[in-house]
Amino acid sequence: MTKKILIDGQSLTIEQVVLVAYGEAGMPKVKITPDAQKQVQRAADAVQTLLERGEVAYGITTGFGAFKDRVIPLEDVRTLQKNIIMSHAVGTGDMYDIPTTRAIMLIRANTLSRGHSGIRPRTLGLLVDMLNHRVHPQIPEKGSLGASGDLAPLAHMALVMIGMGEAEYRGEILPGVEALERAGLEPIQLAAKEGLALTNGTTVMCALGTLLVHKSERLCGVMDTAGALSLEALNGTPLAFDERIHNLRPFPRQIETAKHLRDLLKGSDFTRDYDPSNVQDAYTLRCMPQVHGAAREAIAYTRWVMEIELNAVTDNPLIFIDDESEEITVISGGNFHGEPLAIAMDYLAIALTELGNISERRMMRLTDECSNSQILPAFLTKKGGLNSGFMITQYTAAALATENKVLAHPASVDSIPTSANVEDHVSMGLTAGLKLRQIALNVEHILALELMAAAQGIDFRREETGENAKLGEGTAPVYALIREKVPFIEEDTVLYEYISTVKALVSSGALDEFVC
């Protein structure tokens, strides 16, 4: 495992965020590069120069939002920065889990490392030290409008830095100052611009989007495998995945998906060749490259957006220093507006919803003997009537797919004015991220249900194909792994524990080596 991740505000990757978010205690360590340290100090010095000159600069010597025209006396500048942290820490709802919190801290440290925010190296260093010592602020999930950044949740992060709020440390929820003390750290007194620099930006929605891109990429691989296993259980044909078909409609990820399906099914004795009496399958089997491929396009777009945002400077105002003249310019703009992320996450939410929809419909075919031409028994059970078999598992999949359709309504098309109508258009980007997270979780469960049903169907097919019949090169190891955890269901039994077990295989990455 990588022992150290260097951040400079320009080169952070999604893979590094995932590594820091989910890494074990002590690994990997995060460190700011020396060049970035110099840039940070340079901007902090520029802030002090502005104060000494008595210049009016938004958020440095003025209030915030609708109070942008209220000039703050020099002696109150430090109080102003503390006040923004305290007054903005008004989040609500459940707390972010530790991986998401760590992603938030890392991304915020990275954007501040770019050296346009005016924060001092020692203040930025405390944030990095908290990350490395695993002091995790308690950050409520809700309260951000996604413009002026994620103010409320980031304020909760910053509270711990000034010795307030609460933090998780070694499994305990402690007062912020105590968590710092146990980790050998001390709270800091904020200087000019620092409260604004810590709270103003798209960091929380970016953290959610980054982790969910990674999860979605994993889900697509599992989705192909579940679909291929279902196709085998239903005696489907891989002819629809022929390379020649997809080259005539050259969407890159449609072509990629078709190839993946061919690879998964290679050598299978459970699929049928050309049959003039049964020339094509239902859309949920035949059109997997088109549907799964379209979802992959949405994931790729969202990855592109998040990779840019990871290394963007998204607070306001921004400080620019001319390399030759050393002239300092403070410019107010709108990089804190989360619209690019909100639209991308809404797009991805729609794509994942469609993956859940097609998976649930394949499960319907597995359980409905009329839809599968009696290839498989009703509800995948031997003694239907006495046993319900997989009947109600399809209900659960249908319920989750329906919930996803409701959640897929885009948050980014909504806006509500705030701050006395100064902030009169907002992105709702964090809401988009929270909805996307729930959709992804629901899809993981739907996939687990399909995988269980497909494995059950394969066992019934063996009565026809014989015990020596081979599954595809890619589906065989996945089937075997499922059967290690879940037996063939001979008669009705309690299923929810099996469902949780298979869902854990989907979400943990245990299937990655077989499906990617």
* CATH domain topology of the largest domain: Fumarase C, Chain A, domain 2
Helix content: 40-55%
Oligomer: single chain
Task: State the CATH class of the largest domain.
Answer: Mainly Alpha
The description of the largest β-sheet is: 3 strands, antiparallel
Order of helices and strands: EHEHHEHHEEHEEHHHHHHHEEHHHHHH
Q: For the CA atoms, what is the radius of gyration?
A: 27 Å
Give unreliable regions as ranges: none
CATH superfamily of the largest domain: Fumarase/aspartase (Central domain)
Q: Could you give the order of strands across the largest sheet?
A: 4-6-7
| Share of β-strand residues | 5-15%
Average pLDDT, all residues: 94
Sum up the overall morphology in one term.
elongated
Level-2 CATH architecture of the largest domain: Up-down Bundle
Number of domains: 2
Helix/strand class = mainly alpha
Please work out how many helical segments DSSP would assign: 19
The N- to C-terminal Cα distance equals 21 Å
How many strands appear in the DSSP assignment?
A: 9
Q: What does this protein structure show overall?
A:
The model has no long low-confidence stretch (mean pLDDT 94). Helix content is 54%, strand content 6%. It starts with a strand and ends with a helix. 51% of the residues are buried. It folds into two domains: 198 residues, Fumarase/aspartase (N-terminal domain) (Fumarase C, Chain B, domain 1, Orthogonal Bundle); 297 residues, Fumarase C, Chain A, domain 2 (Up-down Bundle), CATH 1.20.200.10. It has 516 residues and is mainly alpha-helical. Strand 8 and strand 9 form a beta hairpin.
